[in-house]
Design goal:
Layout: E1 9-12, E2 15-18, H1 29-33, E3 37-38, E4 41-44, E5 47-48, H2 51-64, H3 73-86, E6 92-100, E7 114-122, E8 133-137, H4 159-170, E9 175-179, E10 185-188, E11 192-197, E12 200-204, H5 213-225, E13 229-232, H6 236-239, E14 244-249, E15 253-260, E16 263-264, H7 270-285
Parallel strand pairs: 8-9, 8-15, 12-13
Antiparallel strand pairs: 1-2, 1-7, 3-6, 4-5, 4-6, 6-7, 9-10, 11-12, 11-14, 14-15, 15-16
The structure holds 4'-deoxy-4'-aminopyridoxal-5'-phosphate.
Residues 40, 153, 161, 187, 190-192, 209-210, 212-215, 248-250 line the site of 4'-deoxy-4'-aminopyridoxal-5'-phosphate (PMP).
C-alpha cells in the first residue's frame, strides 16, 4: 500500500487536512537526524485500545528525544477520537508522530519546532498467519538503555530493526529475533517476545527492549490468572528449551512462532490460546489503560 495515497483526513499543525496536503519539506530535521517519535494504536469497532498508555508513551519518547512538546493528553485523545469519526474507521490503526521542523540542518535543534501529525487508516492483521511465523536471528544486536534511550519509540531505534528485517525477508523468514549486547534474548524487529516451558511463562527484562503495552497487558493477565511468570535475562540455549513462543505487539497482537531458524515450536499451545482469547475480549471492551484490565 502506498501510504502517501491515503484518502483520509490527517491531523497536522492543529488542522484536519486532506492526506494529499499532509507534506513536509525534504530538509525536515527528523528525516536527516532520526529523532522523531511515534506511536501505533489499534482501533477496534471504532474504539482505540489502550489510548492513554500510548499517549503517555508518546510523551515519554518525546521527552527522551529532547522534544519540547507541551500538549496535554486530553487534547490528543480528543483529536484521535475525532479522526476515527471523520474518517469513519471501524477497525484500523492510528499513527501519531512528533517530528522536528526544517529549522536546522545540523544536530543543533534549538531553532526547530516539534510538530505533531496523526494519521489513521483501515487495517487488519499484520502477519495474517494463524499457523505461526518463522523467525531468523538478526546479526545486529538491540542497543540497551546505557547507550540509547531504548524506552523511546523513536525513529532512530528502528534502524537495526529495519535492516535486520530486510535481511530476514531475503532469507524467506517472516521476521527476526534480536539479541541484546550480551547475546541474551531481547525482542523481534517490532514485537516483544514471550515463551512457555512446562506452563511457566518467560519474557525478557526491559533494558534492551521497547516496553510494549501489549507486553504489559499479557503480564497483567498472567498474574491475574495465577500463571507463573519469570522475567529475566535468558540466552539462546535457555530459549530453545521452550515448548511454545509468541510475539506481542499492537499490530501483531498475540502471534505464535512456529520456527526459529530450523527449530520447530508448538503453535497450538493452550496458554497461547488462552492469551489470544483474553486479547479478543480486550478488543471488545477496549480499555484506555492496561491498569484497568
Ligand atoms: N518492540 C518494538 C521494537 C516495537 O516496535 C513494538 C511495537 N510498538 C513493540 C515492541 C510492542 O509494543 P506495543 O505492544 O506497545 O505495540
Amino acid at each position: 500500500m502506498d501510504f502517501s495515497k491515503l484518502k483520509n483526513k490527517i491531523y497536522l499543525k492543529n488542522k484536519f487536512i486532506s492526506s494529499r496536503n499532509a507534506n513536509i519539506h525534504v530538509l525536515n530535521h527528523s528525516l536527516h537526524f532520526a529523532t522523531s517519535v511515534f506511536e501505533g494504536i489499534r482501533v477496534y469497532n471504532s474504539k482505540p485500545l489502550f489510548l492513554i498508555d500510548h499517549i503517555e508513551r508518546l510523551f515519554l519518547s518525546a521527552k527522551l528525544m529532547g522534544h519540547d512538546f507541551p500538549m496535554k493528553s486530553e487534547r490528543i485523545q480528543k483529536i484521535i477520537i475525532k479522526l476515527i469519526k471523520i474518517n469513519n474507521i471501524k477497525d484500523g490503526y492510528i499513527r501519531p508522530i512528533i517530528f522536528r521542523s526544517a529549522d536546522s540542518m545540523s544536530p543543533e535543534t534549538s531553532l526547530c519546532k516539534s510538530i505533531l501529525a496523526i494519521a489513521i487508516w483501515k487495517w487488519g492483521k499484520l502477519f495474517s498467519k494463524d499457523s505461526g511465523v518463522k523467525l531468523d536471528i538478526s546479526k545486529f544486536p538491540k542497543l540497551n538503555k546505557k547507550i540509547y534511550p531504548i524506552q523511546a519509540k523513536s525513529s532512530g531505534s528502528y534502524q537495526t530493526s529495519v535492516i535486520s528485517r530486510i535481511d530476514s525477508r531475503r532469507k524467506k523468514y517472516d521476521d527476526c529475533l534480536m539479541l541484546d549486547l550480551k547475546g541474551n534474548i531481547a525482542e523481534s524487529s517490532a514485537c516483544n517476545i514471550f515463551w512457555i516451558k512446562k506452563n511457566i511463562l518467560f519474557t525478557t527484562k526491559e533494558h534492551s527492549i521497547l516496553n510494549g503495552i501489549t507486553r504489559k497487558a499479557v503480564i497483567k493477565i498472567a498474574k491475574k490468572k495465577g500463571i507463573l511468570i519469570k522475567i529475566g535475562d535468558y540466552n539462546l540455549k535457555d530459549f530453545y528449551k521452550a515448548d511454545s513462543i509468541f510475539l506481542t505487539g499492537t499490530a501483531a497482537e498475540i502471534q505464535p512462532i512456529k520456527k526459529v531458524l530450523n527449530k520447530n515450536f508448538n503453535v497450538n499451545c493452550e496458554l497461547i490460546n488462552f492469551f489470544k482469547s483474553q486479547y479478543e475480549k480486550l478488543k471488545i471492551s477496549c480499555p484506555d489503560k492496561v491498569s484497568k484490565i
